[in-house]
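Quick one, tokens below:
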């Protein structure tokens, strides 16, 4: 007696499971809700006999409910489907969070037919089911369906099925919101890091107030916002890469990649692959396709350090990229186009290399569009103490060793040395001194031996023993006054002499002891 009823129930359940499986599969296909809701509504129409269906979302900032996706409605009809909270059946469902069933829409005064889609059906009776879409306790929208009215239709079952689908859509919305939030967080983090890098490499953070460095800053400011190729020249250790960093992070490409290549560090056998990439099987060991530095720098900046060390063969290939902004990977035939700003640096005498035939003239002119010369440290003596103090603070923090000052004899040694290794050598010297210091002061004996000999500093020893002793005495008095902050009595006690003798020695050496009162 119950077999026919059971068969109907089983058949309905199979259809439901089939629909829910299809909905689940569809929702997993894309992270964009608009791409998947249309197919979901189409599946509902196929399985439920639905004439029309809509997904509506609540925009809390305006309080408006609008159709996000629809089945069986034209674009203009969708556009008309807008409701305020509590307005019509749909507005009440979203406001109360309770589902609604309207067996005969013609008999329901709250049914607004805002889209106008039902007017063409004349006297055909239509039923309307609308269920809320909830995220937790929050209603974010509604899912509705139109069906032709039929006697004996179990609206509760249809409403239950619609509610399940609405719950699945809500979970999909939640996942997409989480993904969007993560994407937004990553974008903000990326922008924060870009700003941090920009601050780190802006000219204000390049140490130096000398006239020579101010000229460099002016050139950097002029070229940063342009697309010009930049050639940065200077001795090893002068900070050419720091200049390149600063130009990039103050350019219009600051948010794009900044790729560095040290041409001198790459063997001739691999530099072409490094610059232009290679295809799988291009040579022994090429087990997979690999992008080169030019591809990685697309839309950003490529910095070619030690450009003067490139071989003639690589120079030819580089010239083509600079001219045409295109190349082929090693072992490949496909032409790859790139949008890259190129900056190069060298410590070599390119003009001499031109005369010797070791550097191509056409490449030289391609690179030397805007040239910046970074001066050696010996030509910016006034920056030495600034740099020394900066490095002392840097390595003091890194090594958790408080360094309060650099003593006068050590300063004199730093100032008299000719610094063949430039800023890099100065940095290494100060780092060593910080590690050796035991009393929070960098003394002369903490500096490398090369700074402690006149021969290494490019100077000659001059004067008599008396003059040398006078210099030592003056430095000791200055050091004592500095540590005592101009307190002559305290300085005298440090040196083991009377205050009267201290006064005589100060007068003898013409030392302005009062200026030490303000020193830290």
């Amino acid at each position: 007696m119950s077999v026919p009823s059971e068969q109907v129930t089983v058949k309905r359940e199979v259809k439901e499971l089939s629909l829910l499986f299809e909905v689940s599969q569809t929702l997993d296909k894309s992270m964009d809700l608009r791409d998947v809701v249309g197919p979901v509504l189409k599946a509902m129409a196929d399985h439920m006999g639905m004439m029309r269906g809509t997904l509506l979302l609540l925009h809390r900032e305006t309080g408006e409910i609008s159709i996000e996706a629809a089945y069986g409605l034209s674009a203009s009809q969708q556009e008309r489907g807008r409701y305020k909270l509590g307005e019509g059946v749909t507005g009440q469902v979203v406001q109360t969070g309770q589902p609604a069933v309207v067996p005969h829409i013609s008999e329901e005064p709250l049914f607004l037919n805002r889209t106008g889609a039902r007017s063409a059906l004349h006297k055909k009776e239509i039923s309307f089911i609308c269920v809320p879409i909830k995220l937790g306790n929050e209603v974010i929208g509604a899912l509705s369906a139109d069906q032709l009215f039929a006697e004996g239709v179990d609206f509760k079952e249809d409403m239950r099925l619609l509610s399940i689908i609405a719950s699945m859509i809500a979970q999909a919305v939640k996942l997409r919101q989480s993904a969007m939030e993560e994407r937004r967080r990553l974008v903000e983090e990326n922008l924060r890091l870009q700003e941090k890098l920009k601050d780190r490499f802006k000219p204000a953070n390049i140490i130096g107030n000398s006239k020579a460095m101010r000229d460099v800053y002016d050139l950097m400011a002029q070229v940063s916002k342009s697309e010009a190729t930049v050639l940065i020249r200077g001795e090893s250790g002068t900070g050419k890469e720091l200049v390149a960093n600063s130009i990039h992070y103050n350019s219009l490409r600051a948010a794009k990649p900044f790729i560095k290549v040290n041409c001198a560090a790459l063997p001739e056998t691999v530099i072409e692959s490094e610059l232009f990439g290679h295809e799988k099987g291009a040579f022994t060991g090429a087990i997979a396709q690999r992008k080169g530095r030019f591809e990685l720098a697309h839309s950003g900046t490529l910095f070619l350090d030690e450009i003067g060390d490139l071989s003639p063969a690589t120079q030819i290939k580089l010239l083509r990229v600079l001219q045409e902004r295109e190349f082929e990977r090693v072992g490949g035939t496909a032409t790859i186009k790139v949008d890259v700003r190129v900056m190069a640096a060298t410590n070599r005498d390119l003009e001499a290399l031109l005369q010797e035939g070791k550097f191509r003239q056409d490449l030289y002119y391609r690179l030397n569009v805007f040239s910046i010369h970074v001066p050696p440290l010996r030509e910016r003596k006034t920056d030495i103490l600034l740099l020394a103090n900066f490095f002392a603070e840097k390595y003091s923090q890194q090594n958790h060793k408080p360094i309060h000052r650099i003593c006068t004899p050590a300063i004199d040694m730093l100032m008299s040395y000719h610094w063949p290794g430039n800023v890099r050598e100065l940095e290494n010297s100060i780092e060593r001194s910080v590690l050796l210091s035991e009393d929070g002061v960098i003394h002369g004996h903490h500096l490398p031996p090369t700074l402690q000999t006149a021969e290494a500093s490019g100077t000659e020893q001059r004067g008599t023993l008396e003059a040398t002793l006078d210099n030592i005495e003056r430095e000791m008095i200055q050091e004592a006054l500095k540590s005592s902050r101009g307190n002559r009595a305290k300085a005298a006690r440090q040196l083991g002499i009377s205050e009267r003798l201290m006064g005589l020695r100060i007068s003898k050496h013409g030392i302005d002891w009062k200026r030490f009162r303000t020193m830290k």
